[in-house]
C-alpha cells in the first residue's frame, strides 16, 4: 500500500502533520513569532508561519491543489478578484454571498470591474454572459438560495471563452465537492464555516492548481497583510480533522429535516440542494419567518453557519441581501444535535410555539 493516503477522510486526519519521529508532537505547534532568525526559509511573519503551512498542506491535499490561507473568507475573495485586469468583466451568480456581490459592486462603481449577474442554475444564460469575460464566479450551492451550478459544463465553457473560473465551495467543503477536479481554476472557502466547524475562528482559503495563480495570490496576501493568525490556523486545522464525521451526522440531520418539514404548518417551500448541511424554508412573509426565529429555543438565531450547533436566520433582514430572495426565507444551518430535538424545536416554532 502506498504511504500516501488516498481517501479524503484519511487525508483530513493525516495531512499537515510533523514527520513521524520519536518524541515529535502529533500536531504542528502554534508558532507565535513576528520574525525569524535570518538565513532560513522564513524571516518575517507576514510572509509565512509554520502553523499556516500545516493548514495549507492539509487543505491543499484535500482539494488537490496549492492552498493559500487568509485572515477571513472575504480577504480570500478579495485576493482572487485582484486577478481580474482593470475593467475586466466578471460573470457572477446573482445569489452569491452578499458581501462578494458588494465587493464587486464597489469595484464596478470605480471602474475596476464590469459585473454580469446571472442565474447560476441556468447554464445557457451563464454561458451566454461569458464572451469577453475575464472571470466566471460560481457558487454551488448558492448562499442563501441553494441553487446548484453545472460546474463541469460551466468551467469548460469559461475556459473556451478565455475566462478564469472560480468556485466558492464554502457550503460543500472538499469532502463533498472538489471543484478543481471538475475543471475550476480556483476554489475559495470561508474556512470560518464547515472547515473549522466550531464557530470560534474567522479564516479564509484559496486553492488552485495553477502555480502562477498561487504565487500571485500569495504575493497579494503579503502586500495587503491579510494574513491568518497562527492560533486561528491551528484551530481551523484541528476542526478540519473531524470534518468528515461532523458532516456525516449533520448531513443525515439535514436530509431528515427536509422530510419532516415537507408538510409543516406555514412552510411554503423547502429548499434542499441534496447534500451539505444548509437548508432553507420559505414562509408566507417576513412576519411569519420572524416569529419562527423568535420562538426557537435550541436553534440559535445567528448569521453564520457550518458549526456543530444549528443556527437559523431570515436572510432578508439584511438590507443588502438580494431582492430576489423571498422575504420569508429562513436559512437553516444544521448541526450535529439529536435530530428529534432539532425537529421538535423547529416544528413547535412553526406551530404554536410550544414543545410537548
From TrEMBL:
The UniProt record lists the keyword Cytoplasm: no
GO cellular component: cytoplasm
Gene3D superfamilies membership: Aspartate Aminotransferase, domain 1 (3.90.1150.10), Type I PLP-dependent aspartate aminotransferase-like (Major domain) (3.40.640.10)
Protein's UniProt name: homocysteine desulfhydrase
N6-(pyridoxal phosphate)lysine modified-residue sites: 193
EC class name: lyase
Ubl conjugation among keywords: no
Cofactor entry: pyridoxal 5'-phosphate
Top-rank taxon: Bacteria
SUPFAM superfamilies: PLP-dependent transferases
Any GO MF annotation of the entry: pyridoxal phosphate binding
Keywords: Pyridoxal phosphate
Entry-linked Pfam families: Cys_Met_Meta_PP
EC number(s) per entry: 4.4.1.2
Family from the record: Belongs to the trans-sulfuration enzymes family.
InterPro entries noted in UniProt: Cys/Met-Metab_PyrdxlP-dep_enz, PyrdxlP-dep_Trfase, PyrdxlP-dep_Trfase_major, PyrdxlP-dep_Trfase_small
UniProt lineage: Bacteria, Bacillati, Actinomycetota, Actinomycetes, Micrococcales
Biological processes annotated in GO: cysteine biosynthetic process via cystathionine; transsulfuration
Catalytic reactions on record: L-methionine + H2O = methanethiol + 2-oxobutanoate + NH4(+); L-homocysteine + H2O = 2-oxobutanoate + hydrogen sulfide + NH4(+) + H(+)
PANTHER family, A to Z: CYSTATHIONINE GAMMA-LYASE, TRANS-SULFURATION ENZYME FAMILY MEMBER
